[in-house]
Large ribosomal subunit protein bL21 (Ramlibacter albus), 104 residues
Amino acid sequence: MYAVIKTGGKQYRVASGDKIKVEQIAADIGQELTIDQVLAVGNGKDLKIGVPLVSGATVKATVVAHGKHEKVRIFKLRRRKHYQKHQGHRQQYTELQIGAIAGA
């Protein structure tokens, strides 16, 4: 069984036992979350698609860790003008362990 969930402005296809990295969520490590923004639930040939959400469907997830992604380097240059700008960014994430998928 799998589900398509929405969190942090992005969509993820998840199955039970998967680990995913999502935009940072304010939750403690080990805390169990219930994600109710489920866009689709599939089981073999059966597929329920929500309009826009599947009513009654939930996904249980446990917070495994918090961290930062790799650094993205930004470099701007204007040729012949002696202008260079260096900048970097590291996006924070929350790692989730997907548990049960309840597709009503």
